[in-house]
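Input record, target 12 of the design panel.
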C-alpha cells in the first residue's frame, strides 16, 4: 500500500452502521466483534490525539469536502464475497482503502 499520513487534528472517523443490531447478524470476512473492536481502537487513539469520531450513517458519494479513508478490516458484510466485491470494486473509487493498523500508524 502507499504511504498514509493522517493529521489527527484534521481527521474524523465516521463509523457507519455499527449500531447494536450488527452484533446479532453474521458478518464476513470479519466477525462483528472484531469490526467493532478495530473501530473502537481507532476511535480511542484518534480522540486522544484531538481527532473527531462520529457514529452515524453517511452517504460517501456526497463528499462533504472531505478525504475519505475506508478501513477494510474495520468493516464487514453479510458474507465474504460481498465484502471482497465492495473493497475491490466500489470503495477504491470513493476513498483510500487501508487497514486498521495502517490508519493507527498514520495518525499524527
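The sequence produced for target 12 reads:
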Amino acid at each position: 500500500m502507499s504511504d498514509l499520513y493522517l493529521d489527527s487534528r484534521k481527521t474524523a472517523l465516521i463509523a457507519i452502521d455499527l449500531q447494536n443490531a450488527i452484533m446479532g447478524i453474521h458478518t464476513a470476512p470479519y466477525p462483528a466483534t472484531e469490526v467493532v473492536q478495530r473501530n473502537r481502537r481507532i476511535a480511542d487513539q484518534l480522540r486522544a490525539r484531538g481527532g473527531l469520531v462520529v457514529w452515524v450513517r453517511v452517504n460517501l458519494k456526497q463528499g462533504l469536502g472531505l478525504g475519505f479513508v475506508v478501513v477494510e478490516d474495520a468493516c464487514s458484510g453479510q458474507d465474504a464475497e460481498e465484502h471482497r466485491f465492495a473493497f475491490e470494486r466500489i470503495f477504491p473509487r470513493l476513498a483510500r482503502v487501508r487497514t486498521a493498523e495502517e490508519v493507527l500508524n498514520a495518525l499524527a
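The chain has a mean pLDDT of 84.
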